[in-house]
């Protein structure tokens, strides 16, 4: 069975930039998974520090209103990996999942770490490059011309173990046609 992971689609991230296209793409993929009766699992980054935008009780750390009602399950995490010291593996095992699709935020941290951790745990992994977004840019990394999503997608693709698609390729290979 397949499952969709929506990583860190939280107010503090989504309100920090224009992620309209990413949210729309993620929502289309969610609706496809829902239409096939496949689970949609949201992962929420939380922190116990009251000064953090990810403070567990802060509105900024809540799942974004446009997507949160789609969640079949919510996993709470405190590190970039959605697997480290969380219930995600148990949830996936109970659901009989052997293939995870990665979407969400931030591409180069939580999405990439989760994709690698999923592969290390024996899951087939599909990373949907343009259904991820990041608050960072070429200036953050002092690398002029850096396209973070493309860089991460290329690195994961080169691994020969993680399938990397854009949304159009997802539609061609996985989406239910009406």
Brief account:
The protein has six helices and six strands; from the N terminus they run βααββαβαβαβα. Strand 4, helix 4 and strand 5 form a beta-alpha-beta unit. The protein is an alpha/beta fold and 178 residues long.
Structural commentary:
- There is one protein chain.
- This protein is α/β, with parallel strands linked by helices and 178 residues long.
- It has one domain: Rossmann fold.
- It is 34% helix and 21% strand.
- The protein is globular, with a radius of gyration of 15 Å.
- The two termini are 21 Å apart.
What is the domain total for the residues?
A: 1
The SSE order reads EHHEEHEHEHEH
Q: Assign the CATH class.
A: Alpha Beta
Oligomer: single chain
User: Biggest sheet, strands in spatial order?
Assistant: 3-2-1-4-5-6
Q: Helical proportion?
A: 25-40%
Spans of at least 5 consecutive residues with low confidence: none
Structural class: alpha/beta
| Cα Rg | 15 Å
Range of strand content: 15-25%
Distance between the termini: 21 Å
For this entry, give a set of tags.
178 residues, alpha/beta, Rossmann fold, six-stranded parallel sheet, 6 helices, 6 strands
Q: Which SSEs are present, and which pair or pack?
A:
Layout: E1 2-7, H1 11-14, H2 20-35, E2 40-45, E3 73-77, H3 88-95, E4 99-105, H4 107-120, E5 124-133, H5 148-158, E6 162-165, H6 167-173
Parallel strand pairs: 1-2, 1-4, 2-3, 4-5, 5-6
Helix pairs in contact: 4-5
């Amino acid at each position: 069975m397949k499952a969709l992971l929506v990583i860190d689609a939280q107010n503090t991230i989504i309100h920090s930039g224009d992620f309209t296209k990413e949210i729309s793409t993620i929502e289309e993929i969610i609706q496809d998974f829902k239409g096939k009766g496949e689970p949609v699992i949201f992962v929420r980054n939380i922190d116990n520090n009251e000064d953090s935008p990810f403070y567990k009780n802060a509105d900024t750390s809540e799942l974004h209103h446009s997507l949160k009602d789609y969640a079949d399950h919510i996993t709470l995490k405190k590190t970039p990996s959605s697997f480290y010291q969380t219930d995600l593996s148990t949830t996936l095992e109970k659901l009989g999942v052997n293939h995870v699709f990665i979407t969400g935020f931030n591409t180069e941290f939580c999405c990439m770490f989760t994709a690698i951790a999923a592969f290390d745990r024996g899951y087939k992994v599909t990373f949907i490059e343009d259904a991820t977004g990041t608050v960072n840019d070429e200036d953050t990394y002092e690398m002029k011309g850096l396209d973070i999503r493309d860089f991460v997608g290329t690195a994961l693709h080169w691994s020969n173990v993680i399938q990397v698609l854009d949304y159009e390729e997802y539609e061609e290979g996985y989406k239910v046609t009406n």
